[in-house]
Amino acid sequence: MSLYVDSSALLKRYVDEHDSDVAVSVMASDPVLVTSRLTEVEVRRNLGRLLDGDNLFSARRRLAVDLDAFALVALDATTCGQAALIAEQTLCRSLDSLHLSAARRAGSATALLTFDLRQAQVARSLGMTVLGA
């Protein structure tokens, strides 16, 4: 099994939030972590919003190292096309549909780690295994 880690989950690795310990523990329990470049964009944005100075510099450096170890799903035409279908069918937010499409592209044995309740609800409606939220 592999684990698709979305932005809400990965951010908890660098910022102490509610359920940070859960997110870190779940990520540590799976040897195959998957995400997309969308996660990098969202996490970096939120790091800049939540941290500053040395804390921000350190978190960005750790994020870069972590992303090098992740398997990355391309946000190519196929992934984006599937995201559009998910968005049409479920009326979920655009970025959520991209995460869900990328998670599905990672394979049927891929679980989704998210702490975004709306995204988790849509993922479950699509038959995906959801951890976190």
Structure, described:
This protein has helices spanning 7-10, 20-29, 37-50, 53-69, 77-90, 94-105, 117-125, and strands spanning 2-5, 33-36, 71-73, 110-114, 130-132. It has 133 residues and is an alpha/beta fold. It has a single domain (2-132), classed as Rossmann fold (3-Layer(aba) Sandwich), CATH 3.40.50.1010. A 5-stranded parallel β-sheet has the order 3-2-1-4-5, sandwiched between helices. β4, α7 (117-125) and β5 (130-132) form a beta-alpha-beta unit. α3 (37-50) runs antiparallel to α4 (53-69) and α5 (77-90) packs across α6. The chain is globular and about 45 Å long. The mean pLDDT is 97.
* CATH T-level topology: Rossmann fold
Strand order of the largest sheet: 3-2-1-4-5
Span between N and C termini?
19 Å
Secondary-structure arrangement, i.e. CATH architecture: 3-Layer(aba) Sandwich
- Assign a percent range to the helix content: 55-70%
* Total DSSP helices: 7
Strand fraction equals: 5-15%
Large-scale geometry? globular
Question: Strand-and-helix sequence, N→C?
Answer: EHHEHHEHHEHE
* CATH fourth-tier homologous superfamily: 5'-nuclease
How would a crystallographer describe the biggest sheet?
A: 5 strands, parallel
What's the number of extended β-strand segments?
Answer: 5
CATH top level assignment: Alpha Beta
> In angstroms, what is the radius of gyration?
14 Å
List low-confidence stretches: none
